[in-house]
Amino acid sequence: MRAVRSGCLGAAALFVALTDAAPARADLALDVARVERAYRASGADVEVLPTRFLWDEEVLTVRLDPKPSTCTTVALVAARGTSFRARLGGIEDREARDRGASIAGVTELSRCDDAPVERVVVSGDAGRGAVEIIVARGLFVAPTLRSILPERTGGVVLTTSEPGPQPTLAPAHKRVESAELRAKSEGAHIEATEKVNVRSDGTGMTEVELDPGCHRIDLLAHEVEGGARARFDVDAELRDSDDETLLARDRSEAADARLYACVGVPVLGAVAFAGAPSSGKVSRVHASWPIPDAVTRAFGPHARARMAGALLSRGLTRLPGAPVWLGQGGSGLTATPVPVEAGACYVAVVAATRGRMRQLALRASVGALESADERGAQEEGAAIAFCARDRRFVRLEVEARGANPTWALALHRVQSGVWELKR
Fold it and tell me: pLDDT of 246-302, one tens digit each?
């Protein structure tokens, strides 16, 4: 009897799962049909590609038939909870205007020139599920998704109550000057400040060349002259233009956005932002620092960049010499006794070398004293400083959790202290 009841419960659970998924599939199919009808009604040649399944943080490359046409429009439609980015590929692979981010599970990309569209590259940000791709080719740009699927692209914006007076925000040129002065005081190399155009929806894109080293990019929005004073909150992302790897993201509540990333090889970065005043300007302040020479090259350029990022973001801009001890490990908690010089002080730095980190922590135990850095998962690096006092060994612990993660550890001797003897 118990077995029969268990089977009934299993069948009931399966029925509930199927009935929950069915409306989602039906809604997606209806949306695709609406887009296809609207594209055909505009006189375009329409092609609906086979359904693709997108996983979280996966990158899909979908090949397109590069048919000759004046304008090519690619619409991507997924479930509302799916967040992704897309770009068109072809002769002009790195054109910022050929990129877009989904809103409520949809986005569209258009190109009207002689460059054929050979592929569309889709990068998952959050959520997973089916992605439908509709391609329209014709003499003109196909109708916008805002007109076809208004419920997916914002629709009517309701009036909201005013939460209170806006905090005083310095003019943009003053904020730019402050960002440049701060970078100079920190010994950074500063590129020429550039102004980036903002689209009517408050979004924009720009590209930035990243040499090996650590980079800080400030995006400071300008208020539109003659317009009403409005609140704004600029959010931004920095990605590798070649493979869409996420390098940095800022989704804070601050008015301006700040991105911080370290790279071990030259990278052409693509910066996408949103939340700026409509049709205005955003100033881009780019400061950079070289990787300290003492950071080891033993584990490759990417691990070296992550080590530099962990050190520089914690104010450790210089190291006196090469590491005195190196180690490697994998997933889980790894504890190692490391020989040290009594009275000396050290800096330990750990960085991911492979896999996807969900947790990365570094700890050093000197007797009853412990130094710890448990903030390393996001930037895939952590650093601590400690003094050996009267000890000949310290206990170093690395805790790494994630998808098949491996890490590398370097220990640097930074100075000798006075060994305090008990009297």
Answer: 899 998 888 899 999 999 999 999 999 998 998 899 999 999 999 999 999 999 999
CB distance 194 to 206 below 8 Å: yes
What region does 104 belong to: left with phi over 0, alpha with psi -120 to 50, or beta?
A: left
Split into its structural domains, the chain has a count of 3
Q: Does 167 fall in a domain? A: no
Assess whether 308 and 280 both reside in one domain.
no
Checking if the pLDDT of 397 tops 90, the result is yes
Are both 314 and 360 inside the same structural domain?
Answer: yes
User: Where residue 124 falls among pLDDT bands split at 50, 70, 90?
Assistant: confident
Q: Confirm whether pTM is higher than 0.70.
A: no
Same domain flag for 372 and 327: yes
Does some domain include residue 10? no
Statement to judge: residues 406 and 308 lie in one domain: yes
Q: Which pLDDT value is given to residue 16?
A: 41
138, 45 Cβ separation under 8 angstroms: yes
Beta bridge partners of 366: 369
How many other C-beta atoms lie within 10 A of the C-beta of residue 26? 10
53 in Cβ contact with 96 (< 8 Å) = no
Q: What is the CATH number of the domain that holds 318?
A: 2.60.120.380
pLDDT tier, 114 (very low <50, low <70, confident <90, very high otherwise) = low
Is 376 exposed, middle or buried, given 0-12, 13-18 or 19+ CB atoms closer than 10 A? buried
Domain that holds residue 99: 15-150
Domain assignment present for residue 155? The answer is no
**Does 309 share its domain with 330?**
yes
Q: How far apart are CA 223 and CA 133, in angstroms?
A: 37
Tokens of 138: 């014709």
- The β-bridge partners of 399 are 333, 361
| Other residues' Cβ atoms within 10 Å of the Cβ of residue 321 | 10
pLDDT at residue number 13: 44
